Structure formats: C-alpha cells, structure tokens
Amino acid sequence: MRILLSTYGSRGDVEPVVALGSRLQALGAEVRVSVPGDEEFAALCARAGVPLVPAFAPVREWTKEMMLRRRSASPEGRAELISGQAAEIVARQYDVLMAAAEGCDAVVACGLFPSCAAARLVAEQRGIRYILATFCPIWLPSAHNRPFEYPGHSLPAGVTDNRALWHHDIRTKNALFGGAVNSHRASLGLHPLDNVRDYVYGNPVLLACDPTLGPWLPSDLIGALQTGAWILPDERPLPDGLEAFLEAGSPPVYVGFGSIAVAREAGRAAIEAIRAKGRRTVIAHGWAELSPIDDRDDCFAVGDVNQQALFGRVAAAMHHGGAGTTVAAARAGAPQVVVPQIGDQPYWARRVAELGIGAAHDGPAPTAESLSAALGTALAPETGVRASAVAGRVRADGAAVAAKRLLDVLRLP
C-alpha cells in the first residue's frame, strides 16, 4: 500500500502527519509525506524517518506575508484575499501533489482547505482513494456545534439551528473557495461543482484529536473516525542550559505562542504576570520571536524543544491553544493558561476551562493583570490535582490507531 500524506500549515499541522507516516511505515505501508519544506519540518521528517516531498512553498514566510495583507484589508477585502490565496494554493499545490502521488494507492490530506482541495483533485485525476483528516471537532458538520465564521461571511443573524448554519456553510465555502476549485477543474476538463465543501471533506473523515479533550458526538451530517491525537514520540534530551535552569529552582511556567505572531507585549505581560506569582519563566521564541525582557536570571529562552520532556517539569504552560500544545500539556498533567487567537484555539481554551485543567484567557490581547488572574487559576492546587487526573485519560496511541483504521478503510472495495 502506497500512501501520500499531505498538509500545508504550521508545526501543529505537520507533526501529526509525520507521526501518522511513521506509524504507517511500521505497519508495512510505503509512505510519502508532503509538508512545507521549512528547515524545521525537514528535520522533523528526518528524525521520524519518513520521506519528505516539499509542498509548494515554505510556510513561515508565506504565512507572515499573508497575515500582513489580511491585517491591512477590510472584512470584505479579507474575503477577497482568502479567495485569491486559495486559487494560488490550489494551482501550485496540485502540481506538487500530482507528481508526488505517482504510483500511490491513496492520499490523506489535512491542513488548509485549498491544500486539501488540491489533494482531492489529484486523487480524482489519478483514480485513487482520498481521505480528509482534521484535528478538531469544530471543523466538521454537526448539530452539536456551529460552523466557523469567516471574514466577510457572517453567520445569519438570529439563526440558532446548527443544521441550517452548516447548510449556510456550504454557500460560504463555495463563495470563498469555489472559484479556485472550479477554475482548476475547468483547466483539467472537469465539470464544475456546486458544493466544494462536501467534495473536499468526503466521508468518512479521520478526526485526530483526543476524545477526552475534544469529544466527538455522532453526527448524521458526516461520519468521523476519532482516533486520538497523532503524537510523534520525542526522545530528544533537553538542552544542557535548560536542564541546569530547571534544576536550579522551583518549577517554572512555560510561555509559548507557537506560529501565532502575538505582539511582543504579550511576552512581556506573561513574564510580568509570572514574576508577580513568584515564579520563574521558560519562554519559547516561536515564530513571534519572543525573548526575555531583561537580563534577570529568572527567565530562560528556548527554541525548538522537546515539550514531552519539558511539560512534566513545569508549574503551568501558557500558550495560544494550538491542538498539539494543548494535548502535550494535558498528557504531562501541566495546568494550562490558554490565550486563544484564531481558528480552533478558542475551542481548546474552552475545553481546558471546562475540564478544570487550567484557565481560558478572555480574548486574544493579554495584559499582565489579565494573565495574572488566569495564572492564579492554573496554579491553584485543585487545578493541579485535576490536571493530573485528566492526564491519565489522555491517549498516546492515536497515530497507531489511525494507521490501522486507515489501512482497514483503504483495503475495503
């Protein structure tokens, strides 16, 4: 069985795909992994021993450029920008994936919708199986949750029926992405689609999130195979300097905002809030390039680090609510302060609060005072007890479960 795995996104999109690729190889499948060709992702693939086929462009600089354009545009302009970006991604990613899929029996896609659309087109053209995967329940049609609200495409006012809202979501995705998909289909001599969402989603979908953190309630609008989060084991030691810092005092608070370009003031606010609680800080540079605010010895800055080794040794983890960081902290039993920014991050913040394993910051613009209040909740003894209890329920075998179920599905006629 030859399988192409594809995603276009940040570390939170790439690492789970690499984890799945590694588990599929362990079961005897032949795997190709197409992810952005950024140096950190090439190193990740090399560490896992999976072959890399670089996506159409490295993602770090591309994302920064796109975010700058979106900030300067009106809501209507942002919608037009999304559609224009979609057309570029579909066309360029299609070319990469079409070549990468040669000789493959199936393609599994996740990440940005236009990238998945390109993978779906490739599968159709090559006559091979296609399966979509996602990392959060909120992206899937269900009577139990509302669709994501895109810029320039507000959900209908006063409508509370989630089924009706998901029907509206079809029109939204047609408006945002239909032109890109149908234009490329026309160039291939294919008929246009009147429902690009369901074409790209397919049925069933692999739901790669932990059932304790992100439970899926069965939906008659789509079938989802929930496998647990796809976690890549990390055996890397912590850097010597970080190890010495951890040994030199009480457990610090971790601060990291991943690929979200949070204003530097957020890093300053976090350090001030942590100091106010009498704690030390481990701050991750991330794409926002956060760093210590002075030369005091109570703050240690790190780059790419083994979160699986680190999070078991911190008093709390303060982060943006990415799916990967949320599950890593939950597995380690580290109380969390989630400062959500975009996408599914508000969902993970809410789940952390609902489970009692941390605090959800109110809004994306933190201050020292607001973070201090949230940190007070995270550092409370009862939160630590709850976080330890939930840690025992978080599964570590999601990638293995997904690999087996995927092969079972693909073997069906």
Could you walk me through the main structural features you see in this protein, from its secondary elements to its overall organization?
The chain contains 15 helices and 12 strands. With 413 residues, the chain is of the alpha/beta class. The protein folds into 2 domains: 2-231 and 396-411, 3-Layer(aba) Sandwich (Rossmann fold); 240-391, 3-Layer(aba) Sandwich (Rossmann fold). The strands form 2 sheets. Strands 2-1-3-4-5-6 form a 6-stranded parallel sheet, with helices on both faces. A 6-stranded parallel sheet has the order 9-8-7-10-11-12, sandwiched between helices. Strand 11, helix 12 (345-355) and strand 12 form a beta-alpha-beta unit. The radius of gyration is 21 Å and the shape is globular. It starts with a strand and ends with a helix.
Give the N-terminus to C-terminus distance in angstroms: 14 Å
Derived structural class: alpha/beta
Q: Detail the poorly predicted runs.
A: none
Which class of the largest domain in CATH terms? Answer: Alpha Beta
Task: Note the overall shape.
Answer: globular
Question: How can the largest sheet be summarized?
Answer: 6 strands, parallel
What is the arithmetic mean of pLDDT?
94
Count of alpha/pi helices? 15
Please bin the fraction of helical residues. Answer: 40-55%
CATH H-level homologous superfamily name of the largest domain: Glycogen Phosphorylase B
**CATH fold-level assignment of the largest domain:** Rossmann fold
Strand order of the largest sheet: 2-1-3-4-5-6
Number of strands: 12
- CATH architecture call of the largest domain: 3-Layer(aba) Sandwich
Strand content: 5-15%
- Radius of gyration from CA coordinates: 21 Å
N-to-C SSE string, H for helix and E for strand: EHEHHHEHEHHEEHEHEEHEHEHEHHH
Number of discrete domains: 2
